[in-house]
C-alpha cells in the first residue's frame, strides 16, 4: 500500500462522505474486510478522486449514473450523500436519474429515485 496515496484518499473520502460514515466503515473492517477498505481508500479516493481533470460535483454525478446502471443501491445511497456534500442539488440528482433511466432502463432509474428519497428524508433535504 502506498501510504501517501492512502492518506490523500482518506482525506478526500472524509470530505465527501463525512467522518462518521468513514469512521464506521473503517471500524467495522475486520481482518477479512480491511484489505478492501484499504484498496477503496487508496485507489478510488486517493487515485481517481484526487485527479484534477474533473471536479467533485462532476465525479459525484458520474458515480450516481454508473451506480444506477449497475443497480447498486447501497453504494448509490452513500454517493447521494456525497453528491449533496459536493454541492449537487436535489434537482440535479433527479436529472441524473432521468438521464440514466433512458440509457440504463426505467426500473433502474426508479429504484435510484426511491433510494435517493430515503437519503433526502434522512438528511432533511
Descriptive report:
This protein has two domains: 1-51, no CATH class; 55-125, AhpD-like. 80% of the residues lie in helices and 0% in strands. The protein has seven helices and no strands. It has helices at 3-17, 19-27, 34-48, 56-70, 73-85, 90-104, 106-123. α5 packs across α7 (106-123). The mean pLDDT is 96. This is Carboxymuconolactone decarboxylase family protein. It comes from Pigmentiphaga daeguensis. Residues 36-117 form the Carboxymuconolactone decarboxylase-like domain. Pfam families: CMD.
What's the SSE blueprint?
Elements: H1 3-17, H2 19-27, H3 34-48, H4 56-70, H5 73-85, H6 90-104, H7 106-123
Helix pairs in contact: 1-2, 1-3, 4-5, 4-6, 4-7, 5-7, 6-7
Protein name: Carboxymuconolactone decarboxylase family protein
Pfam families: CMD
InterPro entries: 4CMD/NDH-1_regulator (IPR052512), AhpD-like (IPR029032), CMD-like (IPR003779), Decarb_PcaC (IPR012788)
Amino acid at each position: 500500500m502506498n501510504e501517501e496515496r492512502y492518506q490523500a484518499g482518506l482525506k478526500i473520502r472524509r470530505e465527501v462522505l463525512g467522518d462518521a460514515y468513514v469512521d464506521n466503515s473503517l471500524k467495522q473492517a475486520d481482518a477479512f474486510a480491511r484489505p478492501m477498505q484499504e484498496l477503496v481508500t487508496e485507489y478510488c479516493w486517493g487515485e481517481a478522486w484526487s485527479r484534477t481533470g474533473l471536479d467533485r460535483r462532476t465525479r459525484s454525478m458520474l458515480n450516481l449514473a454508473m451506480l444506477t446502471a449497475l443497480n447498486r443501491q447501497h453504494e448509490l445511497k452513500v454517493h447521494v450523500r456525497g453528491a449533496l456534500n459536493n454541492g449537487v442539488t436535489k434537482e440535479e440528482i433527479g436529472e441524473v436519474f432521468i438521464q440514466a433511466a433512458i440509457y440504463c432502463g426505467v426500473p433502474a432509474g426508479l429504484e435510484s429515485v426511491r433510494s435517493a428519497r430515503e437519503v433526502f428524508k434522512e438528511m432533511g433535504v
